[in-house]
Design brief:
Length: 220
């Protein structure tokens, strides 16, 4: 869908890849555009990018942990049935998700497929008063998150291990969202731009998501 499109269109197009994690795709697009033009975004704009990323992580993790994963651990077919016995946890999880959605709407323009992100910054940035109100919501969200972590810690996790190769970003000074080197718990340590030299994406029959394999090992 992207060849032949103007660069300003890319962030809005790739956001449609996922309604739960659009920021990840938008940031990948704007970073690629900025790298092509030799542009570096720093200061408060960079901080706002990290903040909108946090909003996505809050809403995404709240949804996945409480509504998608917890029913499996506790023996329920879905989150609706689970709410009959764990209503407070479900309400807290949804409240946490709402805080993340509100943060994405404030900075990104809306929570589903945000429209404010662009190469070089944002089409609109929040006011000081808007950010102050968001800060108060995040303080309440922190308490909700701590309570949910304590609840999840009571789950009966199986004693099972697999020999995975874990891959993630690593940054020397901060928790990496959108900058850093791509590393694994084995021997991978490369620049993000070299991803396709080390990895190959494959379609598998049982999934709608592409699987990444390490070329020299063949493992996903």
């Amino acid at each position: 869908f992207l060849p032949g499109r103007g660069y300003a269109e890319l962030p809005d197009i790739v956001a449609r890849i996922c309604g739960i994690c659009p920021i990840a795709y938008q940031m990948s697009a704007v970073h690629a555009i900025e790298n092509a033009f030799g542009v570096t975004v720093d200061g408060q704009l960079r901080a706002l990018r990290r903040l909108v990323y946090c909003g996505e992580w809050i809403e995404s993790h709240g949804l996945h942990v409480v509504m998608l994963h917890a029913p499996d651990f506790l023996g329920f077919p879905d989150g609706i049935r689970m709410a009959q016995e764990h209503g407070e946890a479900v309400r807290n999880g949804l409240a946490l998700k709402k805080v993340g959605n509100d943060l994405m709407r404030l900075i990104g323009g809306r929570e589903i497929h945000p429209v404010s992100v662009k190469a070089g910054g944002f089409h609109r940035v929040p006011t000081k008063a808007e950010l102050a109100a968001a800060a108060e919501n995040l303080k309440r969200a922190r308490d909700l998150a701590v309570g949910l972590v304590r609840w999840v810690a009571t789950f009966p996790f199986p004693d099972y291990e697999r020999d995975y190769e874990f891959v993630a970003l690593r940054h020397p000074d901060e928790y990496p969202f959108n900058e850093g080197r791509l590393v694994s718990n084995r021997d991978i340590d490369i620049d993000i731009a070299d991803y396709e030299t080390e990895f190959e994406e494959r379609q598998v029959a049982h999934s709608t998501a592409l699987h990444s394999a390490v070329k020299r090992r063949g493992a996903c």
